[in-house]
Specification:
The complex is a heterodimer.
Chain A: H1 2-22, H2 25-32, H3 40-47, H4 52-65, H5 68-94, H6 104-114, H7 122-137, H8 144-161, H9 173-197, H10 203-239, H11 243-251, H12 257-286, H13 288-292, H14 306-329, H15 337-340, H16 343-357, H17 360-368, H18 377-390, H19 420-429, H20 432-443, H21 449-461, H22 465-475, H23 482-494, H24 502-510, H25 517-522, H26 528-542, H27 547-560, H28 563-568, H29 583-594, H30 609-619, H31 622-625, H32 638-641, H33 648-657
Helix pairs in contact in A: 1-5, 2-4, 2-16, 3-4, 4-5, 5-7, 6-14, 7-8, 7-9, 8-10, 9-10, 9-12, 9-14, 10-11, 10-12, 16-17, 16-18, 17-18, 18-19, 19-20, 19-21, 20-21, 21-22, 22-23, 26-27
Chain B: H1 2-32, E1 38-43, E2 46-47, E3 53-55, E4 64-66, E5 72-78, E6 84-90, E7 94-95, H2 99-107, E8 113-121, E9 127-131, E10 133-137, E11 145-151, E12 161-167, E13 173-178, E14 186-193, E15 196-206, E16 210-217, E17 220-225, E18 234-240, E19 246-258, E20 267-280, E21 286-287, E22 297-304, E23 310-317, H3 327-330, E24 340-347, E25 352-360, H4 362-365, E26 368-374, E27 380-386, E28 399-404, E29 409-412, E30 422-427, E31 433-438, E32 447-452, E33 463-464, H5 472-475, E34 479-486, H6 494-502, E35 507-508
Parallel strand pairs in B: 1-9, 3-10, 17-35
Antiparallel strand pairs in B: 2-4, 4-7, 5-6, 5-8, 8-9, 8-10, 11-12, 11-34, 12-13, 14-15, 15-16, 16-17, 18-19, 19-20, 20-21, 22-23, 23-24, 24-25, 26-27, 27-28, 28-29, 30-31, 31-32, 32-33
Classes of the chains: A mainly alpha, B mainly beta.
């Protein structure tokens, strides 16, 4: 006993060290950003829908993740509970033959936490499953009907607590996957256990009571789940043009192809389970040896069964283990999550986290470690924000122009549901009304505290301080935003205009005050040139030091290959803090001069002679000289060009001029 | 024996808890009673501000928050003679008046005054007594039910919204319909016939079945689609004729656009097209008249007079030669479109319109006029005056105006208007109260306010709809949209309503055989 305790303590210590030093639990919070408020009505509304208990505990767990130490401690406590419960369940199920198996769920949790992106509610759900399983497995040897009745009640409780129908109340695809696997795992666990412990005399009775008791809970739950969805969504079914579409909608309303396939797989599994149970029943009747091999120690084994007993026990335990692990991992599995263990994903999350916290230098440090192919549009917005806010200058600022597909700066301003980085970009650009529009569009689908803070900030900047106060009051009930919200509420009480708060003051300076309806309407429809000018020039004219607007303006012109526009805007660089020309801008200026451009207002900035030399080298390349003869990308001399892949010249010569041959 | 002991222990424990609770309560009571308070000759800062208001005799307790510094708060509820009728304590300034006390007080105070006397205790234990808040209880009650839509500020997309009814004498709010039951449809423009909750109209834009009008009357539910080939635009604003058979509705092509700066609410709306028409619920006939659906004018916001002889509406001259195809062609006219206030005589027996009469000309008033609502006695009309267009909700200039229908003179109801949006008003069935939607508190979120209209047409200081939690409005991020008063509750079964909306089948309005020339050659938009 003492040895087991020591082993467990050692394992938990290792787990804590892993969670504290190898994991950054703040990034788990960053990826999930669960909605959580310390308000009575929030608790009630969270607990009301079936499955709400796990969602609520998951959200609470998420709050603890926001601190590295708190996250590590809470994960370790959870791991301890998981270890204790899984040990209890395995011992009840399989005796003490395979003691180390109790660590498998813990290892699963370790793997899951290491991906950073996982459904936080999966952990409490598994714990509830184990608690109820332990409860069921500990039942005295009451008669089969009583046990079956209790099993049905426990199953219903499990269903209500973990795998309910949140779709009826809010859209949460994770549960679509979670519910079936949970129920399947639960049913098989109970089935195996009952087969083990059923006394030979009761076998026949078991055929009629046990199997339905095990299967009926999950099936009834699923039927309820589907029926409730059917009731809710039947308008869509009846509106479907074809029978197939109706069927698909019935199976997985509003979901994707893959979720439909998974749901179908779940149905197949449940059906197989029912069929299997009947086959086992028949085998049980025909071959007592088969069952005796599974029966518990209390039941006298028949001759010949003893030698198979251990194998069956091992098999049952492994099946249970697999199901538990599946219940934890499968809901969180998705192809893209395979990448999540990679350093890139962690870096993206870290950059996002640092930008959100205003730690721009750290964000840029982290960004500098990314490989060129690891830049995606989301992280580029963060990097651009970090650059403009930190005052740092990197020649790699526009490195992304040669990515495939290239990210257009104005894409962030296209009308869509948006994300928090896009909203922040709008705010820092000075296009506060656009930020507001995007934030409220997003608000229709979520009330994440980060978004509520953005709404509060937007209204503070716009002097809508009474509305801001409402959002700040909401945030004051969030453990992580409480301090910030309270600070701003205090500041508002002292001065509603927050004239002494530098961050608000700066944003107010940038804010567009001139009404501009035409441009607001047309930037989706007109040419890129109009869009760039409208979106970024106006904020720049309002505040010449708005570097973010200048970066996007120049970035847009670079992407267009509009060298003359770049040349005409060089004079804007020094007021925005540039003391030297960025590399790509220098390259663009050389192209402008090469094309015959004159009279550039350099505003005291100078070209680096090494860039001019490099340009000459580029022009001297045979492939550049003979570009007219270029038929396809296969004809390119990649080796010669490799040096220039990230240059503006390569972009202009080989991406734009030749009609996108690459 | 053991069992009995356990039961006895539980009973003793429960009794102990009760006694402790009583002692704690008594201590709080003793502790909170102000002793030798310093009198302050100024009113306490409270929210909502109920000082010097006229309140209905059937309103729920006016719970409020005292915004004065302090650690203990106490409020005495006094009748006109100064007799103590109730009291409330608080540690955080949230004053909840006991409902029973409040009801008893109001029952005996019709036509009289009552007062609320706040006290606050500072950290040193010194009490301050503020000037009492004086409230006059009107003799006439307000309609018992308030129906509104709760919706987050919506730009283009929406998620959750619902129509609710609140019993004004209590805090009970019940859901009439949530859009989560109807495929996240947009549900809007609930309208009642003569403040009768059992005759309700509702507009629904369903993701699968397109727009339709839901008519709930006499226990029956009906779903109709009033779009026709000749008039394909979506029906929007409705008014139910007092005879209960006829519905006037507008068909609008509404375009939303956004301001990039220069104003606080970036949202704005322009009507590219709008016409009025009549729908007969009994026979399903649609009537279009060239007098109310002119191609050179934009007609909208219908409203019947209580006797059903006049149809009031807003109408603007179209600023364009040819209807613009899209928003790009329409938006540049937004500041110059101003709506006149009109009415037209109507004969319900023959379904005929007579002469159009301009009540208020926008060229003379200098403002756009919309949302006309006539008082139940037919003497007065309240409308919204605002800078331009027909959608005042997004304009801070929107104010309530009152038109005397006998003298034809209009005046801004400055007693109740604020420097922010005031709109969406509704009369009580006895004509003594109106409820309106105001953004005065936040600038962005609308809240329902009541005001008493006396026999001379003067309004009293508005009263915010009280809530059980006095700080409710400090946290509530949704709009109270289109508040409507009703004397009776809406009896529609929520499930039945959702089922009707979710059904694909719907009645079609019969194509008009005669009427105004259609202005659009656009086919009906598919659902």
């Amino acid at each position: 006993m003492k040895l087991r305790l020591k082993q467990d303590a050692l394992v938990l210590l290792c787990f804590f060290l892993f969670a504290r030093f190898a994991l950054d639990t703040r990034l788990i919070y960053e990826a999930a950003e669960p909605v959580f408020y310390l308000r009575w009505d929030f608790l009630i509304s969270s607990l009301r829908p079936p499955g709400g208990l796990t969602v609520f505990i998951g959200a609470l767990l998420g709050q603890l993740m926001a601190s590295r130490l708190g996250g590590a401690l809470s994960l370790t406590v959870l791991a301890g509970i998981l270890l204790f419960l899984s040990d209890r369940v395995f011992r009840l199920f399989a005796g003490r033959r395979i003691p180390f198996v109790r660590y498998v769920p813990l290892l699963t949790l370790t793997a899951m936490a290491g991906t950073y992106i996982f459904a936080l509610e999966a952990v409490p759900a598994v714990l509830i499953l184990l608690i109820l399983a332990g409860l069921y497995l500990s039942l005295p040897k009451w008669s089969l009907p009583i046990r079956s009745g209790i099993l049905a009640i426990i199953t219903a409780l499990l269903y209500l607590a973990t795998a309910g129908v949140p779709d009826l109340f809010q859209f949460h695809p994770a549960f679509i996957f979670q519910a079936p696997f949970f129920l399947l795992g639960w049913a098989l666990l109970c089935l195996g256990f009952e087969l083990r412990r059923t006394l030979p005399g009761a076998r026949k009775k078991a055929c009629f009571l046990l199997m339905p008791a095990v299967v009926i809970g999950p099936l009834a739950g699923e039927l309820y789940f589907r029926a409730a969805l059917l009731w809710k969504w039947h308008a869509l079914f009846s509106g479907a043009k074809s029978g197939l579409k109706s069927l698909l909608l019935l199976l997985a309303p509003g979901l994707t192809f893959w979720s439909t396939i998974l749901t179908l797989a779940m149905y197949a599994s449940v059906t197989a389970m029912v069929v299997l149970s009947f086959i086992i029943q028949r085998a049980q009747l025909r071959s007592p040896k088969f069952v005796d091999a599974l029966t518990a120690d209390g039941s006298p084994p028949l001759p010949g069964a003893q030698k198979n007993k251990g194998a069956f026990r091992l098999l049952g335990t492994m099946a249970t283990l697999g199901l538990l692990a599946g219940a934890m991992l499968l809901p969180n599995w998705a192809p893209h999550n395979a990448i999540t263990t990679s350093s890139a994903f962690k870096r993206w999350l870290n950059i996002e986290y640092c930008v959100r916290k205003g730690q721009y230098g750290k964000a840029l440090n982290e960004a500098s470690k990314l490989e060129p192919w690891q830049f995606d549009s989301g992280v580029l917005y963060d990097i651009n924000l970090a650059l403009s806010q930190s005052g740092w200058f990197l020649d790699d600022l526009f490195i992304w122009i040669n990515r495939t597909p290239p990210t257009q700066p104005w894409q962030i301003l296209e009308f869509n549901q948006g994300n928090s980085t896009e909203i922040t970009t709008y705010i820092f650009l000075g296009r506060i009304n656009d930020a507001e529009r995007l934030a409220y569009e997003l608000r229709s689908s979520t009330q994440k505290p980060g978004l509520i803070w953005q709404l509060a900030l937007i209204h503070l900047v716009k002097d809508d301080y009474e509305t801001a106060r409402i959002y700040l009051n909401m945030l004051a009930d969030n453990p992580l935003y409480r301090r910030r919200a309270t600070r701003y509420l205090d500041l508002l009480n002292r001065d509603p205009h927050l004239s002494d708060v530098p961050e608000i003051k700066e944003l107010k300076t940038r804010m567009l005050t001139e009404d501009d309806i035409e441009q607001t309407i047309t930037y989706q429809d007109e040419t890129d040139n109009v869009i760039i000018k409208d979106l970024f020039l106006k904020p720049l004219e309002k505040d010449p030091s708005n570097r973010l607007a200048l970066d996007y303006l120049l970035g847009g012109f670079l992407l267009q290959g509009n060298s003359s526009a770049i040349a005409n805007n060089i004079y804007r660089l020094p007021p925005a803090g540039y003391q030297k020309l960025p590399l790509l801008v220098q390259e663009a200026l050389l192209v402008y001069q090469y094309q015959g451009g004159r009279d550039v207002n350099m505003a005291g900035l100078k070209l680096d002679p090494r860039v001019a030399t490099s340009f000459q080298e580029f022009l001297n390349l045979d492939i550049v000289k003979n570009i007219k003869q270029l038929e396809s990308a296969d004809d390119l001399d990649w080796q010669a060009l490799e040096k220039f892949f990230n240059t503006y010249w390569f972009h202009v010569w080989f991406r734009l001029k030749e009609g996108g041959r690459l | 024996m053991k069992q009995n002991k356990k039961v006895a222990a539980v009973i003793v424990f429960a009794a102990l808890l009760s006694v402790i609770g009583l002692i704690v309560r008594a201590l709080i009571y003793i502790n909170c009673r102000p002793e030798q308070p310093v009198r302050i000759n100024a009113p306490a800062r409270i929210f909502p501000d109920y000082d010097n208001t006229v309140i209905p005799p059937n309103i729920a307790p006016l719970n409020f928050v005292i915004k004065e510094p302090g650690q203990r708060f106490y409020v005495r509820v006094l009748d006109q003679e100064g007799g103590l009728r109730g009291q409330a304590f608080s540690r955080d300034g949230r004053i909840r008046i006991p409902p029973k006390t409040w009801r008893r007080l109001l029952q005996n105070a019709r036509g009289k005054s009552i007062s609320l006397e706040p006290f606050a205790r500072d950290a040193a234990g010194h009490w301050r007594q503020f000037s009492p808040l004086c409230l006059r209880v009107a003799p006439e009650p307000i309609d018992e039910y308030l129906i509104y839509r709760l919706i987050y500020p919506v730009y283009n997309s929406w998620s959750k919204m619902g129509i609710y009814q609140r019993r004004i004498s209590t805090f009970k709010q019940t859901e009439i319909l949530s859009n989560t039951q109807v495929g996240r449809s947009c549900i809007n423009c609930h309208t009642f016939s003569a403040n009768q909750g059992d005759r309700m109209l509702l507009q629904v834009r369903h993701p699968s079945f397109g727009p339709s009008m839901i008519i709930a009357a006499g226990g029956n539910l009906k779903k109709t689609d009033l779009r026709t080939k000749l008039y394909p635009k979506t029906p929007t604003y409705t008014a139910w004729h007092p005879n209960g058979d006829i519905v006037a509705f507008s068909q609008n092509k509404i375009q939303q656009f956004f301001h990039s700066g220069g104003r606080k609410d970036p949202r704005d709306v322009v009507d590219q097209e709008s016409d009025l028409a009549i729908y007969n619920i009994r026979d399903g006939n649609l009537t279009y008249s060239p007098k109310i659906s002119r191609s050179d004018r934009l007609e909208t916001w219908p409203e019947w007079s209580p006797d059903g002889k006049y149809l009031y509406f807003s109408s603007a001259k179209t600023p364009w030669e040819k209807t613009p195809k899209n928003i790009l062609g329409a938006f540049k006219y937004w500041p110059i479109i101003k709506y006149d206030l009109m009415r037209i005589e109507f004969d319900a027996a023959t379904n005929n319109f007579r002469q159009v009469e301009t009540l208020l000309d926008s060229r003379k008033t200098g403002m756009s006029m919309s949302q006309p609502r006539v008082s139940p006695d037919g003497r007065r009309l309240i409308f919204v005056g605002h800078d331009y267009g027909s959608f005042p909700i997004f304009q801070e200039s929107a104010n309530l105006w009152m038109l005397d229908l006998q003298t034809k003179k209009a005046r801004p109801i400055s007693e109740i208007n604020s420097d922010r949006t005031d709109s969406w008003h509704s009369w009580s069935s006895n004509g003594r109260w109106i409820v309106f939607s105001s953004k005065r508190d936040t600038g962005r979120l609308s809240r329902p306010y009541f005001t008493y209209i006396d026999t001379k047409g003067q309004a009293s200081k508005p009263v915010l709809l009280p809530q059980k939690d006095p700080a409710f409005y400090d946290y509530f991020p949704e709009n109270f949209n289109r508040p409507e008063l009703s004397a009776y509750p809406v009896p529609v079964n929520q499930k039945a309503l959702a089922q009707v909306i979710n059904r694909p089948d719907k009645e079609k309005g019969k194509e008009p055989v005669t009427g105004a020339a259609p202005r659009s050659d656009e086919p009906p938009s598919s659902p």
